[in-house]
Design brief:
By secondary structure, the protein is an alpha+beta fold. The chain has eleven helices and eleven strands. The chain has helices at about 30-40, 45-60, 60-65, 75-95, 170-180, 200-205, 210-220, 230-235, 240-250, 250-255, 265-275, and strands at about 10-15, 20, 105, 110-115, 130-140, 145-150, 155-160, 170, 180-185, 260, 285-290.
């Protein structure tokens, strides 16, 4: 939500009725202390990205539900909100921080809340208003994540008294001016199932076809694409031993002019390397039988 954002020196009152003046982030000693502590962490973008990815995967629960897209109508709004809840636990664990009741944690002796959103804004609860918050944004359609550190002053929030839980969103201009980015916007690993068109999804998840047939459809419709174990489990959701069924798809994939390489086997990993792929031990990739293919820019290769 857009709107004017009061500047430094303007008055604000916290939930306890205590008045205080707004400060720039650089003048907020507690914010600077927390920021310095976070920036001491090596590969902070990777840490946040892994926590976001694990939170999304937990909610999608592909091996049980067959879901692979957080923005899908198959995922309801309550479940999307659950991503933020799981993110608190996963992120604090990854950062080696304690999980407290209120606030969420303490960094260098400073109380800090962690708020995640899959939408465009955050719901700041009453107890976190005028306090420091780590704000994490997940863009499910663009497969990106971002994070900021901000003192969420009440005058920088919209919604009056808030919703029935007294939660309020952040004014867009306040976020732009007074939230400190923790890292540049970063990419999440896109589930390759999202590369399928409507006909491909229908074929790969056809309830009337056997799993070997469906997996053969997956490999032949998306050649030169590395699939992790969890992708295979999502296609074979609620079925026994989908990995064995994937291995059984080798002959059907071969009839389509492709060789299915399985990271479980050393020789297959070597052949994948010759074809230009870094195939992990739990990975799968279908490459042309002549193996002269080199992956073009944009094709999915596991790091």
């Amino acid at each position: 939500m857009r709107g004017s954002a009061p500047g430094p020196g303007s008055p604000c009152t916290n939930v306890k009725g205590e008045p205080h003046a707004l400060e720039l982030p650089g003048s907020d000693i507690e914010l600077r202390t927390v920021l310095e502590e976070l920036r001491r962490k090596r590969e902070i973008r990777r840490i946040f990205g892994a926590a976001v990815q694990s939170s999304v995967d937990y909610v999608l629960d592909g091996a049980r539900t067959g879901r692979f897209d957080l923005s899908s109508p198959l995922v309801d709004s309550d479940e999307r909100r659950t991503v933020g809840t799981k993110l608190q636990y996963h992120l604090l664990d990854a950062l080696g921080l304690p999980k407290l009741r209120s606030p969420d944690t303490c960094i260098a002796g400073v109380p800090v809340d962690v708020k995640g959103t899959v939408g465009k804004n955050w719901s700041i609860p009453r107890e976190a208003q005028c306090e420091l918050c780590i704000l994490v944004k997940i863009d499910a359609q663009r497969d990106t994540h971002s994070a900021w550190l901000m003192r969420t002053h009440r005058v920088w929030l919209y919604g009056g008294q808030g919703n029935r839980d007294q939660k309020r969103g952040i004014i867009t201009e306040a976020l732009k001016q007074y939230a400190v980015p923790l890292y540049p916007e970063a990419s999440l690993t896109r589930n390759p199932l999202r590369l399928l068109d409507a006909a491909g999804v229908a074929a790969v998840f056809d309830p009337h076809a056997g799993l070997v047939t469906r997996l053969a459809e997956l490999f032949t419709r998306l050649p030169n694409t590395v699939f992790a174990r969890d992708v295979i489990a999502t296609v074979g959701f609620q079925l026994d031993d989908p990995l064995r069924r994937a291995r059984q798809a080798k002959e059907r994939v071969k009839s389509a002019g492709l060789e299915l390489l399985v990271g479980q086997w050393v020789q297959d990993r070597k052949r994948a390397s010759l074809a230009g792929f870094n195939l992990p031990k739990d990975g799968w990739v279908a490459v042309p039988l002549d193996r002269r293919h080199s992956p073009s820019p944009g094709e999915l290769i596991d790091p």
